[in-house]
Amino acid sequence: MRRVGIALLGCGTVGRGFVELVERERPRIAARHDVDLRIDRILIRDNDKERAGVDRRLLTRSAIAAIDDECDVVVELIGGVHSAGAFVRRAIANGRNVVTANKALLAMNGAELFNAAAANDVSIGFEASVCGAIPIVRVLKSAFAGDEIESIEGVVNGTCNFILSCMERGSAFAEALSCAQERGFAEADATLDVDGVDAAQKMRILASLAFDAPVVRESVVGIRGVTPHEIERARIGGNSIRLVARAERIAGGVAIDVAPRELDANHLFANVRDENNTVVVRGRASGEIVLSGKGAGALPTASAVLADVIEIAKSPSRRTAYAI
Ligand code: HSE
Predict the structure, then answer these.
(1) Residue 295 in contact with ligand 1 by CB distance below 6 A
(2) pLDDT of 119-133, one tens digit each?
């Protein structure tokens, strides 16, 4: 059995979920995949924080110690672009495979990072960067390999969907947002969620997997302007308001559009509730394929991170995960 050492960067909501899941699933993964996953180091920022279930001996506040340590995979769950980007670049330069849930980093610097990974013969796994537990990255890369994708449309932000669902049940926006934050759905900077930026970043990642074309048009509107009155009026009319994100081919490239939409009760997206996500991929030959599931939260997102780690750990050649 091959021992696979993991350096975990960040021990927030998803990081702790990842530690819990590795602990819980290690015997099954060893039996099934013949790899013994071990978290060797965990990079943290704050030493005094309570982290139930996390072995304190693994904690370090030194990024260099965590990244430069002998390990097979660096799992980046810090989020944000600057420190996380520097750490990922260093890990790649050190010849480490990387798994990340960081859509902001990939949406902004994906091409550069994937080129660096290719030059250093390592992988970047990023399934967890889009739609939590839903395996949309694998589906776009593998299942649609033989088809031309025409459009991708979905409810791709769990926090906004949770807020809109709570408001339909009578909660105020601020109350619903703090509940989403408490449950670990929101970004550290929740304006990214409510202003539609997180959804747009996810669509950029999906678009780069689906279409070999640049984004030439992008329109992003979040849910901040959706009033309780509009939600109630929609509800009385049997409708629901959802933040809908869309990427499609247009002349010269790809158009991305994120905006709140009032949807008929029978619309697929109207029935997506709370932190769930749904994505519809339309292929020229395959027609519509629908994927649904938990789009945010510690364990659902950690499950996607862990699947990437296992894929990398099992691979005899290092470059397995997909480039965007
Ligand atoms: N803040 C994100 C969301 C987390 O609410 O969808 C998962 O990407």
Answers:
(1) yes
(2) 999 999 999 999 999
